[in-house]
Write a structure and sequence with these properties.
The chain is of the alpha+beta class and 342 residues long. Strand 11 and strand 12 form a beta hairpin. The mean pLDDT is 95. The chain is globular. The longest helix has 24 residues. The chain folds into 2 domains: 128 residues, Phosphorylase Kinase, domain 1, CATH 3.30.200.20; 208 residues, Aminoglycoside phosphotransferase (APH), C-terminal lobe (Aminoglycoside 3'-phosphotransferase, Chain: A, domain 2, Alpha-Beta Complex). A 7-stranded mixed β-sheet has the order 1-2-3-4-5-7-6, with helices on one face. Strands 8-11-12 form a 3-stranded antiparallel β-sheet, with helices on one face.
């Protein structure tokens, strides 16, 4: 972290130091002041701003502004030219999802202001209320409790995911579009976008294109005929827990910008809940959590295609963060998936 006085009336600004080539580009004191002028009026002054870690896509700040009873959260999207085809305009997708996420509204931050005009800083931005609690992935979160108590947390995660997955939608694909008439079309489009992004970054996308070929012929995808809401990125890093609670209690959910309509089994949350069998995560599947997962032969075939889609997205993420070992590991994992698919 780097602390300095901003140019706008000695604003106290604390930022995260990054290399010049990092994906997340700086947001300065003048930018934050301009955003708050647009949202709260010319009399509003940013007193302090602290850039929050944990997120790897948007720049996120906790900002104290005159005239506001408590700090707000300012999120600034990446520059348009830096966004992958498979991740384009995620903040706009999140905003379009809010009415559909009313089933978990008490857990979510409220939107105070948004701006897609690029008149202020040339990037999309959003201001939200600050959620109470501690990050579940932080030192005062899940790790502050004994491991047996974690089952309570994962059971709650299952309940929340189940509520989201119960919402029915108008089309397949990202909530903000483009929409598709069939789940097969939406899956193929997503896989092709990831492959195109890999090509653009100079990474080998041959295995992703093999998965596209499988998806084009896979009849099990056509069994999914009703679009359901997928949270897209709901897991520990995007959850808050109540401070001082006797057991880990989820008090907030944030950053649901990868929502889409489709098969609930394709959600990132499902992948993560399945990732460590035989651990506390198994409570996710309790009857008073998410409930049992469909493990029919058709569902297993679909899950392999979903796993390949996740691996492609993870490969892009590792590449963006400069994690060469992580990128390489996805090729081995993808080869194992393709062995099962063929």
């Amino acid at each position: 972290m780097h602390e300095h006085a901003g140019r706008e009336r000695c604003m106290e600004l604390t930022t995260i130091e990054r290399s010049a080539g990092a994906f997340q580009k700086p947001v300065g004191a003048a930018d934050l002041q301009a955003i708050c002028h647009r949202a709260f009026g010319r009399r509003a002054r940013v007193v302090s701003a602290v850039e929050l870690g944990g997120g790897m896509y948007n720049n996120t700040f906790r900002v104290a502004v005159t005239g506001q009873d408590r700090p707000v959260v300012v999120r600034v999207a990446p520059e348009p030219g830096l966004q992958f085809r498979s991740e384009r305009q995620l903040m706009r997708n999140e905003y379009a999802s809010i009415p559909w996420l009313s089933v978990i509204a008490p857990l979510m931050p409220r939107v105070i202001a948004t701006d897609w005009s690029h008149e202020v800083i040339g990037r999309d931005w959003m201001i939200q209320t600050l959620l109470d609690g501690s990050p579940a992935a932080g030192p005062q979160g899940l790790s502050a409790y004994p491991r047996p108590a974690w089952r309570t947390f994962f059971r709650q995660m299952g309940t929340i995911a189940g509520r989201v997955h119960g919402v029915r939608g108008p089309h397949f694909g990202p909530v903000a579009g483009p929409g598709y008439a069939t789940w097969r079309q939406a899956v193929i489009a997503s896989l092709e976008d990831i492959a195109t992004d890999l090509d653009a970054e100079g990474l080998n996308a041959a295995d992703m294109r093999q998965v596209v070929a499988v998806a084009m012929q896979e009849p099990a995808l056509d069994d999914i005929t009703e679009p359901r809401l997928l949270a897209g990125d709901l897991w520990i890093v995007n959850v808050m827990v109540a401070e001082g609670a006797p057991e880990p209690t989820i008090s907030g959910v944030l950053d649901l910008d990868r929502t889409l309509w489709g098969d609930p089994a394709a959600d990132w949350t499902i992948r993560m809940a399945l990732a460590k069998p035989g651990t506390e995560r198994d409570a996710f599947w309790d009857s008073d959590g998410y409930g049992p997962l469909d493990r029919s032969p058709a569902a297993v075939r679909r899950s392999l295609i979903y796993q390949a889609r996740h691996l492609g997205a993870v490969r892009l993420e590792h590449h963006r963060l400069g994690n060469a070992d992580g990128v390489r590991s996805t090729y081995d994992d993808m080869a194992a998936v393709l062995t099962e698919l063929y």
